[in-house]
Hints:
The complex is a heterodimer.
Chain A: E1 4-7, E2 10-13, E3 19-25, E4 32-38, E5 45-51, E6 57-58, E7 67-73, E8 76-81, E9 90-97, E10 104-105, E11 109-113
Parallel strand pairs in A: 2-11
Antiparallel strand pairs in A: 1-3, 3-8, 4-5, 4-9, 5-6, 7-8, 9-10, 9-11
Chain B: E1 4-6, E2 11-14, E3 19-25, E4 32-38, E5 45-50, E6 54-58, E7 61-66, E8 71-76, E9 85-94, E10 101-105, E11 109-114
Parallel strand pairs in B: 2-11
Antiparallel strand pairs in B: 1-3, 3-8, 4-5, 4-9, 6-7, 7-8, 9-10, 9-11
Amino acid sequence: GAVVSQHPSWVICKSGTSVKIECRSLDFQATTMFWYRQFPKQSLMLMATSNEGSKATYEQGVEKDKFLINHASLTLSTLTVTSAHPEDSSFYICSASRDGETQYFGPGTRLLVL
Amino acid sequence: QKEVEQNSGPLSVPEGAIASLNCTYSDRGSQSFFWYRQYSGKSPELIMFIYSNGDKEDGRFTAQLNKASQYVSLLIRDSQPSDSATYLCAVNIRDRGSTLGRLYFGRGTQLTVWP
């Protein structure tokens, strides 16, 4: 199988606080993990790509100092939304890949910033 | 510019019919192709991937790839109401000089299968 988990599944926080989202590949080692964001009625938007042990590669327009990504091991990547604001409210989805091509998605994390 | 185009739909078919979902892509360097299903409020789920020209069958699903025409499709036979979802076409492209590919997604086709 290729199971990817995310935690938490949903989070509500106050404006200005930071939120950490974990993404884990449960039954395989993920050489690469990806972070996406999806707003209602829109398609997935890639935020960044991360390889274990190296710095993440961010897509144009994504602030690396606001969205901190750590890929500490072959099974764990974290996304920290720093100083969250209401406009950061979205559905954050990670994916993991063992071959760099086929991506398996986690269940997503709904973030609501009040 | 790397574009992946899908008919946004909605596509509506009766239960038991064949649903045909189409996708075109602009970059001839595309190497692998994926179909994901996304239920409302959920994350995408991988249905099929295809690398070579021709057909690939998996149960009720058949993916068809024509690289010359830059066209990939998904057929769903014996459609069921539980197939009602948004289907995302995704194309993996490796940037020049990079060993890492990234997925470019279409906007998705909304499919409704009515009983």
